[in-house]
Design goal:
Helices cover 34% and strands 23% of the residues. The chain has helices spanning 3-15, 48-70, 75-87, 132-142, 150-159, 173-184, 257-262, 265-276, 280-295; strands spanning 31-39, 108-114, 119-126, 147-149, 200-201, 204-209, 215-221, 242-244, 249-255, 299-305, 310-314, 318-324, 330-335. The strands form two sheets. Strands 1, 2, 3, 4, 5, 6, 7, 12 and 13 form a nine-stranded mixed beta sheet that branches. A four-stranded antiparallel beta sheet has the order 8-9-10-11. Strand 12 (318-324) and strand 13 (330-335) form a beta hairpin. The relative contact order is 0.18. Bound molecules: aspartic acid.
């Protein structure tokens, strides 16, 4: 089932680009958190069957990532695997379930960051890449650059054995209908900001800490429905949608990217933890419910600090989220009060 991610991770090990984690501190607690978007998600918006499938996919992804951690794997591998599972689901706005842009194309962004050495990889505005997070990881491990975009990123992908899919693979009726509604609305470019049940962001992301105490974060998205061709959101921007630094925390964001970029949300949370010495929860609250909300931005984050504390903070009605904390407790949530 996780064929692509596992093959990819093995290829990195074999090529020597990545060495298997040596467990320096086997007693250290591991933890992982994931999200699959935030927004106007209210009970009754979805039928029971869809809600059940979403919950099951979140649980499967978070448990698969956790399994990597408990068997001695790295936080980078855990984050990568969890995100590929979410990208392979038609329910979330990343990989297979990506939204359509204004040209009726699926244009994908992703990034990943290693908190142990601040290395990072990102791709923006790529097409037909089955798992953009694997391409972002390749950019990190096999190039001297942090971000590749568009055609150049796709050539790099072909040269590095990254899997492509045809346009049909990415077609979902649900996303197609969203595009039609957006195009028919009075103010198409502001469609995502309307008070409609479709008004939600469903980018995916993960943060984790491994046995060595290394933090990692990753994010993958199709961006926003009806976005302009070439528009890049926060998800592939290191410091905005993704950040990880062992000295502070790891963050992955979802929401209205234009606001997250200007507020440098992910980095701001880590900076507050590092320089103000405040708790992860307080830092996330100050940025999401303070700064971002004051600017008028909607969305949320998942974050983890160097002790494995988790924050799942959003200023919207709901956020698809799941975690396994340092005690091994599994949590899955969609709505605000659960
Ligand atoms: N943050 C993403 C973007 O602006 C959208 C999302 O979170 O769904 O591209």
């Amino acid at each position: 089932m996780y064929r692509h991610a596992i093959t990819f991770i093995l290829s990195l090990i074999v090529s020597g680009a990545m060495s298997m984690t040596v467990i320096a501190n086997p007693g250290a607690a591991v933890a992982i958190a994931i999200h699959a978007g935030s927004g106007t998600i209210r009970k009754g918006d979805f039928d029971d069957a869809r809600e059940q499938e979403v919950r099951e996919t979140l649980e499967r992804a978070v448990k698969a990532g956790h399994q990597i951690l408990t068997s001695g794997g790295s936080s980078l591998d855990a984050v990568t695997l969890a995100i590929t599972i979410l990208e392979d689901s038609p329910h979330f706005n990343a990989g297979k379930g990506a939204v359509f842009n204004a040209e009726a194309r699926n244009e994908l962004d992703a990034s990943i960051m290693d908190g142990s050495n601040l290395s990072a990889g990102a791709v923006a505005a790529v097409h037909n890449i089955r798992n953009p997070i694997l391409l972002a990881r390749k950019v990190m491990s096999d190039s001297v650059h942090v971000m590749l975009m568009g055609e150049g990123a796709e050539v790099f992908a072909r040269n590095h054995g990254i899997e492509f899919e045809d346009d049909e693979y990415f077609f979902t009726d649900h996303r197609w209908q969203q595009l039609q509604k957006a195009k028919a609305s009075a103010n198409p470019e502001a469609y995502q900001l309307s008070e409609s049940p479709d008004d939600w962001f469903s980018t995916v992301g993960a943060v984790a800490i491994d046995h060595e105490g290394n933090l990692a974060a990753g994010t993958s998205t199709g961006g926003m429905t009806n976005k302009r061709w070439g528009r890049v959101g926060d998800s592939p921007i290191i410091g905005a949608g993704t950040y990880a630094d062992n000295r502070s925390c790891a963050v992955s964001a979802t929401g209205h990217g234009e606001y997250f970029i200007r507020a440098t949300v992910a980095h701001d949370i880590c900076s507050r933890v590092q320089y103000q010495g405040i708790s992860l929860g307080d830092a996330a609250d100050a940025v999401i419910n303070g700064q971002l909300t004051e600017m008028g931005g909607d969305g949320g984050i998942i974050a983890m600090d160097r002790k494995g504390n988790i924050s799942l903070t959003f200023n919207t009605a709901g956020m698809y989220r799941a975690s396994v904390d340092t005690a091994g407790t599994v949590y899955v949530g969609i709505y605000r009060d659960e």
